[in-house]
């Protein structure tokens, strides 16, 4: 994950004696903040912590949170500013693009290995559900490492680097197509 995949929703203040941190949340993200317990703390471009909010307190129109993880206070003391962030929320436009892939043939090394049947979002990325020629379902993360190209004209999705996924499903790709591993 890259920092560009995160959205800053507020700032993390200092820690009090009870282990609670004051947070300042942007008004437009308050409802999102209240619904999630998993956030990221961005200390600088190379220091990002994934943390869990274990408690929330509200006093005098101030929000205080405590984390389940230890050691945050030490890292917090080393930085002037800490950004509280969440994963970038996908838009309906992204869902529309994914809907168009349903029914596409999936091609690996020039050989059809199946067809896109459905997809879902796992809070990190989209995952394609591919039905193989053998009736076995493969889950393929829709990321640049695996997805090479989309051929809209021929309704084909060209994939790459899927050897480990095929192997984990006991499948091998031969010159005659996909088959069950011996």
Secondary-structure element series: EEHEEEHEHEEEEEEHEE
Helical content (DSSP H or I, runs of 4+): 10-25%
The structure class reads alpha+beta
* Largest sheet strand order: 1-2-5-4-3-6
Distance between the termini: 36 Å
Number of strands: 14
Q: Enumerate the spans where pLDDT stays under 50 for 5 or more consecutive residues.
A: none
DSSP strand content: over 45%
On the 0-100 scale, what is the average pLDDT?
Answer: 88
Describe the structure.
The protein has 182 residues and is an alpha+beta fold. Helices cover 15% and strands 49% of the residues. It contains 4 helices and 14 strands. The protein has helices spanning 30-35, 72-77, 92-101, 163-168; strands at 6-15, 21-25, 38-44, 47-59, 62-67, 83-87, 105-108, 111-121, 126-132, 137-141, 147-151, 156-159, 171-174, 177-180. The protein has a 6-stranded antiparallel β-barrel with strand order 1-2-5-4-3-6. A 6-stranded mixed beta sheet has the order 10-9-8-7-12-11. Strands 13-14 form a two-stranded antiparallel ribbon. The longest helix is centred in the middle third of the chain and has 10 residues, at 92-101. The protein is elongated and about 70 Å long. The mean pLDDT is 88.
């Amino acid at each position: 994950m890259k920092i560009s995949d995160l959205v800053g929703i507020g700032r993390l203040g200092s820690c009090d004696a009870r282990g609670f941190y004051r947070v300042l949340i942007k008004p437009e993200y308050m409802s999102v903040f209240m619904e999630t317990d998993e956030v990221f703390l961005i200390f600088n471009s190379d220091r990002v912590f994934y943390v869990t909010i274990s408690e929330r307190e509200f006093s005098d129109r101030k929000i205080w949170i405590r984390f389940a993880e230890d050691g945050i206070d030490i890292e917090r003391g080393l930085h002037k500013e800490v950004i509280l962030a969440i994963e970038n929320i996908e838009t309906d436009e992204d869902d529309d693009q994914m809907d168009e892939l349903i029914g596409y043939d999936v091609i690996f090394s020039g050989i059809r290995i199946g067809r896109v049947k459905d997809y879902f979002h796992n809070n990190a990325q989209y995952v394609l559900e591919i039905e193989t020629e053998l009736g076995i379902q493969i889950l393929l993360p829709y990321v640049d490492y695996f997805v090479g190209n989309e051929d809209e004209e021929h309704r084909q999705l060209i994939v790459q680097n899927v050897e480990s996924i095929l192997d984990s499903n006991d499948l091998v790709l031969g010159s005659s197509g996909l088959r069950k591993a011996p």
